[in-house]
Specification:
Blueprint: H1 5-23, H2 37-48, H3 52-57, H4 60-69, H5 84-92, E1 96-97, H6 109-128, E2 137-138, H7 148-152, H8 157-168, H9 172-191
Parallel strand pairs: 1-2
Length: 195
């Protein structure tokens, strides 16, 4: 029995050498990457671009240039990290006030995605048509539209559509139809003579 001890010891040593790989704690989840200015520009410009071929071929530098032509300014180079302050300044250009306690802090991809899921349609409207007058939304003020009637009361269909999309999460085309009908009804009732 003692003759097999060296072979057993060698086998045990091999198992112990490989054990750290087997018994190590599971790898930590990858850190949420920091968004860059170019990545944000690319996301917004792609939201505004209806042609899938052009979206697929767009670079971050081209996206930054496209947003600048639409009057949306991002400060810094495309490879620079996006900060909370820069995101706040970017949103302010379309009438959205986003308050931040740490303007110098880098903005993660997941936080950027959450912001764009709420306000991406507003940014895309402005990027697609710089003349678009957008509804002003203040995140620091808890009072906002409570139902569709608040959105329908806005002066233009695009403002109504942006309000509706942020309120309900409905796609732009559904909100556009509802807002178009609401504004058409307002025009008809406004032009009818009063008794």
């Amino acid at each position: 029995m003692h003759r097999h001890r060296p072979a057993f010891s060698a086998l045990l040593a091999l198992l112990l050498l490989s054990a750290p790989a087997l018994s190590a704690a599971p790898p930590a989840a990858p850190a949420d990457p920091v968004m860059t200015i170019g990545e944000l520009a690319l996301l917004v410009a792609c939201l505004a671009e209806p042609d899938p071929a052009r979206r697929g071929a767009m670079t971050s530098s081209a996206a930054v240039a496209s947003l600048r032509r639409a009057g949306l300014e991002l400060h810094g180079e495309p490879a620079d990290p996006l900060t909370e302050g820069e995101m706040s300044a970017f949103l302010r250009q379309v009438g959205i006030t986003l308050l931040t306690a740490h303007p110098e802090s880098p903005l993660s991809s997941s936080k950027t995605a959450a912001i764009l899921s709420t306000f991406g349609s507003l940014l895309a409207l402005r990027a697609a048509d710089p003349r678009m007058a957008l509804a002003s939304i203040n995140l620091g003020n808890p009072i906002g539209p409570e139902d569709f009637s608040d959105c329908a009361a806005l002066p233009t269909v695009p403002e109504c559509r942006a309000c509706c999309s942020s309120l309900s999460g409905l796609p732009n085309n559904a909100c556009g139809k509802a807002c178009g009908r609401a504004h058409a009804a307002q025009q008809v009732s406004a032009s009818e003579p009063t008794p």
